[in-house]
Amino acid sequence: MHNYLDFEKPVADLETQIISLKGIADTKDGVDVSEEIQRLEKRSRDALVELYKKLTPWQKTQVARHPDRPHCLDYIQRLITDFTPLAGDRFFAEDYAVIAGFGRFDGQSVAVIGQEKGSDTQTRLKHNFGMARPEGYRKAVRIMEMADRFGIPVLTLVDTAGAYPGIGAEERGQAEAIARSTQTCLGLGVPLVSVVIGEGGSGGAIAIAAANRVLMLEHAIYSVISPEAGASILGRDATRARDVAQAMKITAQDLKSFGVIDEIVAEPLGGAHRQPDDAIDIAAERVRAGFAELGRLDAETLRRERREKFLSIGRDL
Fold this sequence. Notes:
Layout: H1 9-25, H2 34-53, H3 57-64, H4 72-79, E1 80-85, E2 98-105, E3 108-115, H5 121-126, H6 134-150, E4 154-160, H7 167-171, H8 174-187, E5 192-201, H9 202-206, E6 213-217, E7 221-223, H10 227-234, H11 241-248, H12 252-258, E8 263-265, H13 276-294, H14 299-311
Parallel strand pairs: 3-4, 4-5, 5-6, 5-7, 6-8
Antiparallel strand pairs: 1-2, 2-3
């Protein structure tokens, strides 16, 4: 059984019936329900295809936040061998919202930096729901600078509602830390590939996503502010988040048309949360292609193309 989203009710009803019929088939009363199961499975798949073919921005927001969606640590566990996490920013403390370290991707050394939301109550609290404090971004800077020094490509995995807005974070220089991390991304002389795997929220996302190649999963979102916060600020009514999501153009399809991202990564039918391993493998193929293309460029070309890419956003609109 899946954790169904509100708009997935038609599919939930069909899959519940399928599970019930399979329970009957497992009994010893000799009832043959295989044809009915096949018919319902086809109806369920067709319903899923229709639903996900026309998702609204608000529905995509729900999919991007699905609790079963693969997170940063899931990607690292499946794709990165010999991963060695590094802790601390050498200024204040360790930030568990940001996972950073070195490992091997396809046998090649790579630095990995990502935001981890957690998968249950305990880990969500530990990782602060993926909302980094200044020390998280300073740790990211430390790892990026180390990778640059040794000529190691960098992969970043973006999944955050935004940087942590607490008083302590502001006192320790949250805005400066985000700006410094963004600046470090832009100045790297090694290939930098970023993947928006869930939510890409505000400066908290761009701080590790000012990359040569910005990939975005098909049902992820990427925006300057969350729909709820935008509705609260603009309309003084957080319940209007659905309408604000539509107006903000936060989907991968919109952002690709604006040139904000470079490539949309397809997800398995029904979203990455239904087939997480397949979703990770599909993303890995596009990351692999990005590194192969960027690996042919020298440091100065990488810096120049990266800067020009971000300076050109919005010029032709």
